[in-house]
Amino acid sequence: DVQMTQSPSYLAASPGESVFISCKASKSISNYLAWYQQKPGEANKLLIYSGSTLQSGTPSRFSGSGSGTDFTLTIRNLEPEDFAVYYCQQYYEKPLTFGSGTKLEIK
Amino acid sequence: EVQLVESGGGLVQPGRSLKLSCAASGFTFSNYYMAWVRQAPKKGLEWVATISTSGSRTYYPDSVKGRFTISRDNAKSSLYLQMNSLKSEDTATYYCAPHRTHPGWFAYWGQGTLVTVSS
Fold first, then answer.
1. Interface test with B, best of A33, A37, A71, A96 (most B CBs within 10 A)
2. How far is Cα A59 from Cα A62, in angstroms, rounded to an integer?
3. pLDDT, tens digit, for every residue of B71-96?
4. Of B39, B36, B48, B24, whose CA–CA distance to B96 is shortest?
5. How far apart, in whole angstroms, are the C-alpha atoms of residue A29 and residue A65?
6. Does A56 touch chain B (CB under 8 A)?
7. Across all residues in chain B, what is the average pLDDT?
8. Residue B117 in contact with residue B86, Cβ under 8 Å?
9. Residue B11 phi/psi, 5° resolution?
């Protein structure tokens, strides 16, 4: 199975700042990577797929980069609604696997 | 608007069975693979099962293979998960999610239904 390692697990930042969340795969997954946002009481939201393609409706302050084994989710100019938990997911091969999550908290 | 409404969760004893349902609307259900993904309390996401558009092919991780069965009814736009021989580690919120291909990403998610396995 492809192991997905996310870091950091917790991240504290202030509105207006930029943050970077890392996701590393245990083997090359090309660009078969998605990012999700999870908030309490809301349905999970797909932000990015194919490593860097923004899902319709995802604000442009979100961006994804990387290929192979190393990926990064960047959120620039943080808005209050961005404080949430973020997960990466590989779909290069079965079984589908997710990272352990990064909780972004307000500083 | 895509809507996915899971139901059927609850408290069940270890070793017993439970069947979850997901009612889908707002998209052409029969054109999508459908999946179940779960999340144990305070834990991350785990893919549990996927079924092809026609229902002829199913996929599971080793953790649930042989115990869980995914099925669908395209006429009713409904997805199901039959869970047998439940274990405490199956305690989680279960989400249904469509995807275009398998493997693939999940463009939409339901709100989930909580399954608690405990004596």
1. A96
2. 6
3. 999 999 999 999 999 999 999 999 99
4. B36
5. 13
6. no
7. 97
8. yes
9. -90, 130
The length of chain B, given as a count of residues = 119
Please tell me which of the candidates B45, B104, B107 has its beta carbon nearest to residue A55. B107
Token code pair at residue B38 = 């779960």
Quote the pLDDT of residue A27: 98
Please, what's the b/e burial string for B13-45 (b: 16 or more CB within 10 A of its CB; e: otherwise)?
eeeeebebbbbbeebebeebbbbbbbbeeeebb
List the structure tokens of A90: 């590989």
Please, what is the Cα angle at B27 between B23 and B30, to 5 degrees? 75
| A100: Cα within 13 Å, side-chain hemisphere | 9
Q: What counts of helices (H) and strands (E) characterise chain A?
A: 0, 11
Which of B:48-107 have CB within 8 Å of A? Answer: 50, 59, 61-62, 95, 102-107
pLDDT at residue B109, as a whole number:
97
Do the beta carbons of residue A73 and residue A13 sit within 8 Å?
no
Nearest residue of B to residue A96 by CA position?
B47
Distance CA A67, CA B71 (A): 34
